């Protein structure tokens, strides 16, 4: 659309950087070196550099939460 109407278009290559707020853990993507604006959710200005995807946490059998409380195998048998 811009090229057809004669507007000047410049292409640049940029590097995405990923940050999360240290207080509310909201994630953002930035094309500059550091985020310049405060967090939209909590208005804090403390950012931590993180990976592109969250680390996947594997739950062990004994760490799974149960809706009915504690389950015991072979009760009343």
The CATH first-level class of one domain comes to Mainly Beta
- The count of DSSP E runs of length 2 or more, i.e. the number of strands, is 3
Binned strand content: 15-25%
**How far is the first residue's CA from the last residue's CA?**
75 Å
The chain-level mean pLDDT equals 84
Residue ranges: pLDDT <50 for 5 or more in a row? none
Biggest sheet: strands, sense, closure? 3 strands, antiparallel
Q: How does the overall form come out from the CA principal axes?
A: elongated
**What's the SSE pattern?**
HEEE
Secondary structural class:
mainly beta
* Discrete helix count: 1
Instruction: Quote the CATH topology of one domain.
Output: Rubrerythrin, domain 2
What is the alpha-carbon Rg in Å? 23 Å
Neighbour order of strands in the largest sheet: 2-1-3
Second-tier CATH architecture of one domain: Single Sheet
Helix content: under 10%
Protein name: Mcm10 domain-containing protein
GO molecular function: DNA replication origin binding; single-stranded DNA binding
GO cellular component, one term: nuclear replication fork
GO biological process, one term: DNA replication initiation
Explain what you see.
The chain has one helix at 2-5, and strands at 17-21, 27-30, 47-49. The protein has 77 residues and is mainly beta.
Question: How would you summarize what this structure contains?
Answer:
With 77 residues, the chain is mainly beta. The protein contains one helix and three strands. A hairpin with a 5-residue loop joins strand 1 and strand 2.
């Amino acid at each position: 659309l811009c090229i057809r109407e004669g507007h000047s278009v410049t292409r640049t290559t940029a590097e995405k950087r990923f940050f999360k707020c240290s207080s509310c853990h909201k994630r953002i993507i930035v094309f500059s070196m550091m985020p310049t604006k405060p967090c939209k959710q909590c208005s804090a200005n403390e950012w931590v550099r993180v990976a592109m995807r969250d680390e996947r946490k594997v739950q062990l059998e004994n760490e799974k939460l149960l809706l009915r409380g504690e389950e015991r195998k072979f009760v009343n048998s």
